[in-house]
């Protein structure tokens, strides 16, 4: 099970790369200056733009790193993350860091935590292996019964995974609260909770308000 999904939701993330490629083609088709083709970030980062809305839909309105959605953290608290940070300018294949393949939909907490995490240097020989689009994150991390995010035992010795886990602040107690909220949010539509929907909604509003005052 993907640690980014609540117990009441399930997404097929296999199409994220393809959908991003299609969006990139659409953006590039509307750019006349060939030098600006492949520079998707400036177009995507404007929250009022149709491209931004399409981009967040591709990620199911969920943070690619932790799975919190825009109902829990409003869109205003989501950001567009450069997986390989902006200082690098180019990816290992020579493509600009502003290309859509290096751009990820992320909540503010994850984006700020990850800031400047250098996926390209040091002992790391698989610089892009933890890119959320590669479907590796749910292989490496898991959600425990107490709602915490943990490194799976078979990856406990991996230096890169440990560095990433620390940098992302995955052990922060807010991660557990976010998962509780995600579960409440997704369970309230189920028929068996129909009678309790108002109660769950009220609880959600109160908890989300308190949560967002802390970040
Ligand atoms: Zn996040």
Q: Can you describe this structure?
A:
The chain is 38% helix and 7% strand. The protein is mainly alpha-helical. The chain has one domain (13-214). The strands form two sheets. A two-stranded antiparallel ribbon has the order 1-2. Strands 3-4 form a two-stranded antiparallel sheet. A hairpin with a 5-residue loop joins strand 3 and strand 4. Helix 1 runs antiparallel to helix 3 (50-58) and helix 7 packs antiparallel against helix 8. Residues 63, 65-66, 68, 106-107, 109-110 line the site of zinc ion (ZN). Keywords: Endonuclease, Hydrolase, Nuclease. This is HNH endonuclease.
Layout: helices, strands, pairs:
Elements (H helix, E strand, L loop, with lengths): L15 H14 L11 H4 L5 H9 L19 E5 L20 E5 H7 L22 H4 E3 L5 E3 L7 H10 L4 H15 L9 H18 L1
Antiparallel strand pairs: 1-2, 3-4
The structure holds zinc ion.
The site of zinc ion has 8 residues, from strand 2 and helix 4.
Main sheet properties: 2 strands, antiparallel
Low-confidence runs of at least 5 consecutive residues: none
Question: Cofactors and ligands present?
Answer: zinc ion
Output the number of helix runs. 8
Cα distance spanning the termini: 27 Å
Give the total of beta strands. 4
Beta strand %: 5-15%
The multimeric state of the shown protein is single chain
Indicate the percent of residues in helices: 25-40%
How many domains, as an integer? 1
| Global mean pLDDT | 91
Structural class: mainly alpha
Spatial strand arrangement across the major sheet: 1-2
Give the H and E element order: HHHEEHHEEHHH
- Write down the Rg: 18 Å
Shape descriptor reads globular
């Amino acid at each position: 099970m993907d640690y980014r999904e609540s117990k009441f939701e399930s997404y097929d993330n296999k199409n994220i790369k393809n959908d991003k490629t299609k969006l990139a083609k659409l953006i590039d088709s509307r750019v006349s200056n060939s030098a600006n083709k492949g520079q998707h970030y400036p177009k995507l980062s404007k929250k009022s733009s149709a491209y931004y809305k399409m981009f967040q839909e591709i990620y199911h309105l969920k943070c690619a790193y932790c799975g919190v959605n825009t109902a829990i953290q409003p869109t205003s608290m989501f950001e567009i993350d450069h997986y390989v940070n902006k200082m690098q300018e180019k990816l290992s294949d020579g493509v600009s860091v502003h290309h859509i393949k290096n751009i990820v939909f992320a909540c503010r907490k994850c984006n700020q935590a990850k800031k400047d995490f250098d996926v390209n240097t040091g002992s790391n020989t698989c610089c892009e292996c933890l890119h959320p689009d590669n479907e590796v994150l749910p292989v490496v991390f898991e959600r425990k019964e107490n709602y915490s995010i943990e490194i799976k035992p078979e990856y406990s010795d991996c230096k890169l995974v440990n560095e990433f886990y620390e940098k992302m602040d995955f052990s922060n107690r807010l991660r557990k609260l976010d998962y509780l909220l995600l579960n409440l949010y997704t369970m309230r539509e189920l028929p068996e909770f129909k009678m309790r929907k108002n109660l769950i909604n009220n609880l959600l509003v109160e908890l989300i308000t308190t949560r967002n005052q802390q970040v």
